[in-house]
Specification:
The chain is α/β, with parallel strands linked by helices and 545 residues long. 34% of the residues lie in helices and 20% in strands. It folds into 3 domains: 201 residues, FAD/NAD(P)-binding domain (3-Layer(bba) Sandwich), CATH 3.50.50; 86 residues, protoporphyrinogen ix oxidase, domain 3 (Orthogonal Bundle), CATH 1.10.3110; 121 residues, Alpha-Beta Complex (Polyamine Oxidase, Chain A, domain 2). Helix 1 packs parallel to helix 9, helix 1 packs parallel to helix 15 and helix 10 runs antiparallel to helix 11. One of its GO terms (cellular component) is cytosol.
Length: 545
C-alpha cells in the first residue's frame, strides 16, 4: 500500500461504531491530508450489533439502541451526522404529541436524514404481570406482589442496608442494592437466562457497568423528583433511568451507513468482505501489517503505521500468533515471536454470549394500552420500546416493539405490529441450530402463552437473525484481562477499541469514546493507552452528578 511520505497510514479493523468513529475522526476536516485510512469490515454491513436489518419493507434494530450519552462529545457527534427533528414525526402528528423540537431542524416527513426524539417506556413481564421498569412504587407493583411478598421484599432490603456482603460476585452486588428477596425475584433467574451462568459465578464488574448507581434508593429518589415541577437535565439521571433518547429515523444502522459514506467522501477507504486472519509483527515489537481474506478467499496484506482493532480480543490474539507461526514455517526457523502460551490461554478462555432475534409481524397485540400515553395502532398498541421477560417460565429475554422506536421502521405502522424476540444462547447450541421455521414457531408459542398474541393466525411475516459474540462475558478467564491488556499494549502501534475489541460490555457511546481516545493518542503521540482502556470504568460516570 503506497502512502505519501508525509502521511501516516492507519488500518482500522471493524466497521462498527468504534471502527467507523475512529475513521471519521481521522479523515474529517481535511484529515485525509495527514492520514491514509483504511477500514476492513468482515461483512457487507456497517454498525456491528448497531446495524439495521431490512426485511420485506420492515426494519429490525438488533439489540435496541438508545442514542444517549453523558458525554457531550458523543451527543454533538451524533447530531452533526444526523440533525435533530425540527418538525413532528408521523406518530407525533397523528397522536398530537409534543417534543422540544430543534429550531431549524429537518422534517422527518420530508427527509430521512434526521434524528428523532423518543420517549423511553420499558416494562418487566413477571408472573403474568407487566411491571414498570425501573421498578416504581405503583399500585400495579403492590397488586402483583401481594401484601406478603411486598413486606418480605421491604424487610429484606432493610436487612441488606445494614448487612453488606463482599462484592466479589454479581449476586452479592445485586443483593447489596436490592435485598435478597427482590434479587431472587427479578435478577437471579434473568441474569442466568442472559448469561447462561448464575450471578454468583459472574464478576461484579458487569453490575458496576450495567446497573451503575441504580438501587432502591435511587429508584425512590427518581420517583420523587419526577413529581417535582422542575425538569431535570437527562445528564443528571442515572443511565438506567433515562426516559428520553434520540433515535435515527430508519434505525441505528442508518447513522453508521451515513458515517461510512462520509469516510469515503472525505478520502478514507472502506473494504467489505475483508476477514482479518493475521497480524504480522515488526522486529521492534510493533505490528507491521494485517492480512485479510476477501470474499473469494484471496489473501491480501496491508502495511500501516498504526492499527486500530475492534475485532474480538480472542480473534486478535490468535491472528497475531497465526502470523508468527506462518512466518516461522516459511523461514524454517523460530525467528518470529509467537504469542506466549499464557496469553493465548487467557484470550481463548474469554467467553461471549450470542443471541438470536426472531422478528414477527403481527396483526395486533392482545396487550391493552393501560397507560396515559397515546400510541399508534388499531387498536392502539402498548407504548413499550422493549419488555424484559424476567419470568423464568419463558426462554425469551426481551421483546422489542419496533413501532415505538420509530414509526418509519414499520411498513404498515397503523395496521401491523413489528416485534422482535431476543433469545440468549451460544453459537452452535440447540436453540442456535434451530431452522428458521422452528425458531419462528417457538417464538409464536411463547408470545401466545404470554397472552401477547392470539396465536399463529395473527402472524403475517417473520425473520430470524443470528448475532455472534453479541455480549463479552465477565467470567472464566475474564479476571486475567489486565495481564492480556499489558501484553497487547506492548505492541506500541496497536489500539484496542469497542465492545469486543476491549472485551467490555460497552454501550455504543463508550465504544465511540474509546475510538476517539485512540485517535487522540495517534495524533498527539501519546505512548501509554490508559485513557483508551479506562473508558466506561470511571466511578464518577456511574454516580449521579
Amino acid at each position: 500500500m503506497a502512502v505519501a511520505a508525509d502521511k501516516k497510514s492507519v488500518v482500522i479493523i471493524g466497521g462498527g461504531p468504534a471502527g467507523l468513529t475512529a475513521a471519521w475522526e481521522l479523515v474529517k476536516d481535511g484529515g485525509a491530508a495527514k492520514y491514509d485510512v483504511t477500514v476492513l469490515e468482515a461483512t457487507r454491513e456497517f454498525g456491528g450489533i448497531s446495524r439495521t436489518v431490512k426485511h420485506n419493507g420492515n426494519r429490525m434494530d438488533i439489540g435496541g439502541h438508545r442514542f444517549f450519552s453523558k458525554d457531550d462529545r458523543v451527543m454533538d457527534w451524533w447530531k452533526n451526522i444526523m440533525p435533530l427533528q425540527g418538525a413532528p414525526s408521523y406518530d407525533d402528528k397523528k397522536l398530537g404529541r409534543h417534543h422540544d423540537l430543534e429550531a431549524g431542524g429537518p422534517d422527518p416527513e420530508k427527509t430521512d436524514v434526521v434524528m428523532l426524539k423518543r420517549h423511553r417506556v420499558s416494562r418487566i413481564f413477571w408472573n403474568q404481570h407487566f411491571l414498570d421498569y425501573p421498578i416504581s412504587l405503583s399500585p400495579s407493583l403492590f397488586k402483583a406482589l401481594g401484601f406478603k411478598l411486598t413486606m418480605k421484599a421491604g424487610f429484606s432490603y432493610l436487612w441488606s442496608m445494614v448487612h453488606k456482603l463482599p462484592e466479589d460476585n454479581l449476586e452479592n452486588f445485586y443483593i447489596n442494592r436490592f435485598g435478597r428477596q427482590l434479587y431472587s425475584m427479578f435478577f437471579e433467574g434473568y441474569t442466568a437466562k442472559v448469561w447462561g451462568r448464575t450471578p454468583s459465578k459472574i464478576s461484579a464488574d458487569w453490575g458496576a457497568q450495567r446497573v451503575r448507581g441504580l438501587s432502591v434508593i435511587s429508584v425512590l429518589k427518581n420517583a420523587v423528583q419526577k413529581m417535582m415541577p422542575k425538569k431535570r437535565d437527562s445528564k443528571d439521571v442515572e443511565t438506567s433511568l433515562i426516559e428520553e433518547f434520540w433515535y435515527p429515523k430508519l434505525g441505528p444502522g442508518q447513522l453508521w451507513e451515513i458515517v461510512e459514506s462520509q469516510v469515503l467522501n472525505n478520502g478514507g477507504k472502506v473494504i467489505t468482505d475483508a476477514n482479518v486472519v493475521e497480524l504480522r509483527q515488526k522486529a521492534d515489537g510493533g505490528i507491521a501489517s494485517v492480512i485479510y481474506e476477501d470474499a473469494d478467499g484471496k489473501r491480501v496484506e496491508l502495511e500501516a503505521d498504526d492499527f486500530i482493532s475492534s475485532m474480538p480480543v480472542k480473534d486478535l490474539v490468535n491472528a497475531i500468533d497465526d502470523a508468527a507461526q506462518e512466518d516461522n514455517k516459511e523461514k524454517g526457523s523460530a525467528s518470529s515471536e509467537v504469542v506466549p502460551a499464557e496469553m493465548k490461554r487467557i484470550a481463548n478462555g474469554l467467553p461471549y454470549r450470542d443471541f438470536v432475534t426472531v422478528g414477527l409481524l403481527v396483526k395486533h397485540l392482545r396487550l391493552e394500552n393501560t397507560t396515559d400515553m397515546k400510541t399508534l395502532g388499531n387498536p392502539p398498541i402498548v407504548p413499550d420500546c422493549w419488555i424484559y421477560v424476567q419470568d423464568p417460565g419463558y426462554k425469551v429475554g426481551r421483546i422489542q416493539i419496533f413501532n415505538n422506536w420509530s414509526p418509519y421502521l414499520v411498513k404498515d405502522v397503523d395496521d401491523t405490529v413489528w416485534v422482535g424476540l431476543e433469545y440468549f444462547c451460544e453459537e452452535g447450541d440447540e436453540f442456535w441450530n434451530l431452522s428458521d421455521e422452528e425458531a419462528t414457531e417457538f417464538a409464536i408459542k411463547e408470545l401466545t402463552r404470554m397472552r401477547v398474541i392470539n396465536g399463529s393466525q395473527d402472524v403475517l411475516d417473520s425473520h430470524r437473525e443470528h448475532v455472534k459474540k453479541a455480549y463479552p462475558a465477565y467470567f472464566d478467564t475474564y479476571d486475567q484481562m489486565p495481564e492480556l491488556i499489558d501484553y497487547l499494549d506492548s505492541f506500541g502501534n496497536l489500539y484496542c477499541v469497542g465492545r469486543n475489541g476491549q472485551h467490555r460490555y460497552n454501550n455504543q457511546d463508550h465504544s465511540m469514546v474509546s475510538a476517539m481516545e485512540a485517535v487522540d493518542n495517534i495524533s498527539t503521540g501519546r505512548a501509554d493507552k490508559k485513557n483508551v482502556w479506562s473508558v466506561n470504568t470511571e466511578k464518577s460516570y456511574h454516580e449521579v452528578k
